[in-house]
Amino acid sequence: MNILIIGASFAGLTAAMDCQKRYPQATIYLIDKEESIGYFPNALNWKVKGEISSWAEARVGYFEGLEQSVLHFLFGWECISIESVSKKIRLKKEESTRELSYDYLILAMGAQQVWEHQSVDLSEKILTSKSIAQAQKSFEKLEEAESVTVIGAGQIGLESLEALSRLPLKLRLMESQEWPLAKYFDQEMVAFIWNEFERIGLDYHFSETINEVSLNELGQVQLSSLQGTYLSDFVLLGTNFRPHTDLVEGLVDLHTDGSILVDDYLETSQSGIFAVGDLIRMPVTMFGQAYLPMINHAILTGRLVAENLLAKKKPLRAVERIVSTHVFGYNLTSVGLTEREANLWLDTSSIRIQQAFSQWDEETIDFKMVVSRKDGRILGGQLVSTSDHIAQMNVLALAISKEMTVEDLLQEAWLCLPRRTDLQPFLVEAANRYLWQKEDRE
User: Fold this and answer.
1) Which range has the worst mean pLDDT, 62-71, 73-82, 391-400?
2) pLDDT 10s digits, 149-168
3) SS3 track for the chain
4) Which of 19, 85, 185, 349 could bond 181 through an S-S bridge, CB–CB 3.0 to 4.6 Å?
């Protein structure tokens, strides 16, 4: 049995590792057009911040075990075509080509950042770290840069801005939304970030959309919006992720956003061809299907595809949207719906609790829970803290996915909450406050 895996990022690596365990007699090929694989996408930020001294420190730990396995590695080889009838793929490396046959093909090519408003090739002017080679090249560019514009104030954009603020650069931020992290946090929860922008001397522009990108006569990037024109040496994209599906266009069915249509067991419209990771949409509680390119989703689907390869045993379940980041000394986690999202079709109540602990503890917590007024169902939660409480937020995500009410959280989920943590009383107090508000309304 031949199993071919195209793409050796988190989804591909996980699929390879699990296929090796489940099918020890199979011949497994792991293919990627990059020579060096298995690196975290945060490598560039870590290097800029001095958190790693060498690029090797940014490598994924469990990849070392795969190197000693019986897997066949074809790195530096690019898949240029797939023939589903004969079950063959064609590969190219420089001037060499080769063909491989498959019984099962796993597509794990990941995502790419696309910029649709450029009139010229800007590849040399864009900073990216999708691969370790790109991260190294971007790091070299920063050594000669005087100005950088970050497009997008989401998770990637903010983490990049914090890293770049350590360098002697003139920084600019362009964002079409009204405030940072607007997809995942309500405005008041991220108000502290404005002070951080002022502290690092950031030139920021919100509610402003870039609609044209070009190069001026001096070779600088020229960004144009309805409000103005801005020049920069380099641009870092923190948005516009698209699935890397050019290879399979016309071969398998795609959604309108370019992601691959799969069934509950990750099989595409072509029998024997599966897709995982950033190539597919995920079923998300309260969102239907959504395109959410995240590492945890890549690992989840990489494991699941190995289980379903020979027989469809375990369907892909709906996941809870949970986003976590660390910027400017704060941990930020969002699960479920924001209040702004929930209010689009539901009557909601929100409970916000803020507390600054003693100077010895040096911790602050800002917690918000969004609840449906009609039935008390928990819809979402947001946490900003100087400490990491993602374990407790995962419990809240589980409560949301099970459609628990506030009463359920107090009576049942309480047993699951880690004890003697700072977040525990906040969840309880938020639940009780909602019940008190409900009594007052009635």
Assistant:
1) 62-71
2) 999 999 999 999 999 999 99
3) CEEEEECCCHHHHHHHHHHHHHCCCCEEEEEECCCCCCECCCHHHHHHHCCCCCHHHHECCCHHHHHCCCCEEEECCEEEEEECCCCEEEEEECCEEEEEECCEEEECCCEEECCCCECCCCHHHEECCCCHHHHHHHHHHHCCCCEEEEECCCHHHHHHHHHHCCCCCEEEEECCCCCCCCCCCCHHHHCHHHHHHHHCCCEEECCCCCCEEEECCCCCEEEECCCCEEEECEEEECCCEEECCHHHECCECECCCCCECCCCCCECCCCCEEECHHHECEEECCCEEECCCCHHHHHHHHHHHHHHCCCCCCCCCCECCEEEEEECCEEEEEEECCHHHHCCCCCEEEEEEEEECCCCCCCEEEEEEEEECCCCEEEEEEEEECCCCHHHHHHHHHHHHCCCEHHHHHHCHHHHCCCCCCCHHHHHHHHHHHHHHHHHHC
4) 185
